[in-house]
Amino acid sequence: MLKFQFVKKSSNVKVGAIPVTNSPRATCPSACPLSGEGGCYAEAGFHTRLNWDKLDRGERGLVWSSFLDKIKALPAGQLWRHNVSGDLPSASDNELS
């Protein structure tokens, strides 16, 4: 089962103290032009990659429905960054439930 991460307040200096999300590697399309050596931000950044590894192993994150509940609970007009790592899950992804 895929898990997705919701962080209420990012500690990332570039993003700022806003909510951020991460999706697992399995959401990334194999045809992504950024995959491979040095092109993928989530693979190239040390802390981002470590976080992504834990998300992939299921050590952190939420199931899809709980993840969506967190996003729905954001106040209207709240600025947030979707997918610091990962991509949108596809309609054919059977691991969302």
Q: What's the structural domain tally? A: 1
Order of helices and strands: EEHHHE
Structural class label: alpha+beta
Main beta sheet, described? 3 strands, mixed
- Low-pLDDT ranges: none
Structural shape:
globular
Strand content: 5-15%
- Termini separation comes to 7 Å
Overall pLDDT: 89
Overall radius of gyration: 13 Å
The assembly state of the depicted protein chains is single chain
Give the spatial strand order of the biggest sheet.
1-2-3
Helicity level, as a percent range?
10-25%
Alpha plus pi helix count: 3
Tally of extended strands? 3
Molecular structure report:
It is a single chain. The protein has 97 residues and is of the alpha+beta class. The mean pLDDT is 89. It is 25% helix and 11% strand. The chain has one domain (5-85). The protein is built from three helices and three strands; from the N terminus they run E-E-H-H-H-E. The chain has helices spanning 41-44, 46-56, 64-72, and strands at residues 5-7, 20-22, 81-85. A three-stranded mixed β-sheet has the order 1-2-3.
Question: Quick gist of this model?
Answer:
The protein has helices at 41-44, 46-56, 64-72, and strands spanning 5-7, 20-22, 81-85. With 97 residues, the protein is α+β, with helices and mostly antiparallel strands.
Produce the secondary structure layout.
Layout: E1 5-7, E2 20-22, H1 41-44, H2 46-56, H3 64-72, E3 81-85
Parallel strand pairs: 2-3
Antiparallel strand pairs: 1-2
